[in-house]
Amino acid sequence: MKLSSKALLALAISSITATAYAETQSQDFVPTTLAASSAQSEAKGFVEDFSLGGTTRNWYSHESKYRGGTFAYKKHGQTLTDRNRTNWVQGTILNASSGFTQGTVGVKTEVAVYNALVLDRSKRDIKGGSNRTLADSNGDAVDQWSKLGLANVQFRVSNTTLTAGRQNFSSGIIDTIGNRALPSSFQGVSFNSEEFSNLSFQGGVFDRVSPRSEQSLSKFRSEYTNSAKVETDKVYTLGANYQPFKSLKTSFFGANVKDFWNQYYFGATHELGDSQELALTTGFNYYKTVDEGKKLMGDIDNDTYSLSFGLTHQAHSLTFAYQAVNGNEYFDYLHETNGIYLANSLTSDFNGPNEKSFQVAYAINMAEYGVPGLKFNAYSARGWGIDGTHYTGNRGVVGKGYDGIQSQDGEKHQEYGIGASYAVQSGPLKATAIRATYVEHRGSEFQSDGSIKEFRLVTTIPFNIL
């Protein structure tokens, strides 16, 4: 189960609310031309453009399992259980970034230190940690810890940048995830090229991930693997973002996860109309995943897609999203990444074998009523037809692939969520974001996410020192 920052809205909702004050969307064709200017020609200098700042985030979550579900923890050598888990962490990022040196080839460095201060240290509350609170082998919280979250060197020619070291990266397959007190990051080499007006290219090779709630670097593993020991240390990715019309944005990416799978992604967003009258946003996301190399995750042949339609009228947005998994295994992605852009990726990813799901979501932007920065939203999603009985991808090897998925026969689940957020518009706390969410998920007997309720309160404050 993935508790993502998209837990209250699908990707389509965020794109819709962003157009709340747009004029009628042009449908004009956009010709591909060379970029009008060179970013490197405008470089200010290594020291002259130096900046020092960051963010601090107060992250609180309280979960309750029901319908027999429990969390477990150990005390005095004995395993104890109860229905509740609470995590409360203050995460702070201090980022120092130079400017690019001037000249044909610009050079820049970026270093960010991540620090976590655990505010709830009760072993009973945190239940041994997980990807929320870092805990030692006895289940006790590590009261305070720090790590090097980012450390890279960047080289730029014209509008093309090569980055080497620990870094952020964002695409439909490999994407930094930031839904905890601290975000993840990746170690490797990547490039981003924006030499054309409406066409850009990205790619990279990564060998380690820096997890959200761990101090050390880790090899990559899948989100839905049966065993944490199934790992890979090479991920290659390449893709492009293309805007053929002013109203249409597309993205194409592929990735080779060594000895796991080859995965291909296509995404498109189209906008039509005037949101002051009525605007329609259509979103489509498609993934193709096939096994590769040693097939450490077993045999995989999976096609998964989502299609969303969103209507916006002034402050109000209403979205309908359908999602389908065509395959006898989960639609899977890399752990500690946000590489799932499907519309129904919520508290549950709605990604079970052969699963179909449907979501209805509503959002209101209170700026229309004189309160800029304040937003509310709500959604309801249902998944059905989960069937793993035909899965043979592990070829009878226990612990390989998705062993155990065969028990899912006609499983179903439903999820509800409401949320409120506010962004400070001015003053010394400008851009401070406060978000409260409540989510309830109910699953049938063998549905993988179970039945759980969660309240989350997150406050993020940016700051600048230099």
TrEMBL record:
Annotated Gene Ontology cellular component terms: membrane
Family matches, as Pfam families: OprD
Keywords assigned: Signal, Transport
InterPro entries membership: OM_porin_bac, Porin_dom_sf
Position of the signal peptide: 1-22
An example molecular function term from Gene Ontology annotations: porin activity
Family: Belongs to the outer membrane porin (Opr) (TC 1.B.25) family.
Record's protein name: Porin
Organism of derivation: Pseudomonas paralactis
